[in-house]
Please model this.
Amino acid sequence: MIQLRSIPYVLQFKKPAGTSRGTLLTKPGYFIIASDASKSPSIGVGEYSILPGLSKDDTSLLPAIINTLNQAESTGLSTVADLTAQHPAAGFAIETALADLERGGKRVLYPSDFTRGELAIPINGLVWMGTRDFMYEQIRLRLDEGFSIIKLKVGAIDFEDELALLGYIRKHFSSREIELRLDANGAFDVTRAAEKLNRLAAFDIHSIEQPIRQGNPEEMAAICQQSPIPVALDEELIGINEMSQQQRLLQTIQPAYIIIKPSLLGGIAASQQWIELAQRLGIGWWVTSALESNIGLNAIAQWTATLNNPLPQGLGTGSLYTNNITSPLEVKNGKLRYNPASAWDLSLLNPTGE
Model:
C-alpha cells in the first residue's frame, strides 16, 4: 500500500527576488514522499510549492490531506484528481510523487529525448524587479549566459526607468537578436494600462503577462483587443477549475497566450486540460515554473518536453537558491538540459530508505 509523508523545506534565495507583490528572501514549502513496501527501497518525491498571496492551498490542511490519502484503500491518480480544485499545490506534489514512484523512484517521470540527454528545451532568461542598476546588471548577465529571450518583471520600479532599460536593450540588440517578454503580475492600473502598453510597444515586445490584476475579465478583454502587445494570461487562470468556466474565460478575454504553471493550476493533468482547451480556441501557450526547487522543476520540465511546443518556455528558475536540490538539470546557452550522467542528491531531505 502506498504511504505519503511530508518534509518541510525552506528554500533560500541567493539574492532578493523582487515582484510586484513584494520581495522574496525565502520560500517555505514541503516535499512529499511516496513509498510502497512492495517497491522498497524506491521512493517517489514531489514538491508542494506555495507562493504566498497567490497559491490557493491552505498549508495547515496538508497533514489532513496526507492522512486521508494514507487511510484510503488505494492511493492513485484518480484520488489525487479530487484534490486539485481546492488544493492545487498538493495535487501537483502528490501526482508527481506517485508518478516518480511508479517509474522506479529515479526522478524520471516522463521518459523522452529530454531525459536521455538528447533534447534541450529553449527557455527565457529571467530578470527580477529592483533598482535600475540591479536590473541592468541582471540583463548583462543573462546576455553573457547566452540567452536570446529575456523576461523582465515590470511594474514595481518607476515606469520611466523601466522604459530606459528597455531602450538600452533595443539600442544594442534588435528584436531579431533578443526577444523581450514582460511580466507585470497585475501591477498596471486599469485606467493607465492602455497608455503604458502603447509606450512599451515601441520596444518590439513579444508579449506581456497579466498587465492588470486578475478577476476583471471584461477589462482584460478590452485590453487584449486594443493592446499593440500580445497579452498572456497568468494569474487569471488560478482557481478556475471547471472546463466550462475555463472555456468561458478564454472566449471572453481572447488572449494571445496563456501561461501554464502546474503547481498553481492543480498538477499535470489539470494543466493538460488548459492546454487542450487553448489549442481548440487557437490560443498560444507555454509552460512556466513557479519558483519550485529542482524537484518540482524537474517534473514540469520533463512533462513539457513531451508536449513538442516550439516556443521558449519559462523554466529557468533552477539557479535561484543557495540550498537547491542537486540534480541533473543544467542550463547552457539559454536552454534547459537533463544530463543523465549526473546524479540526484537528496541528502538534504534525509528521506527514509534513501
Notes: The chain has a mean pLDDT of 91. Residues 88-102 form the longest helix (15 residues). Residues 130 and 221 are 30 Å apart (CA to CA).
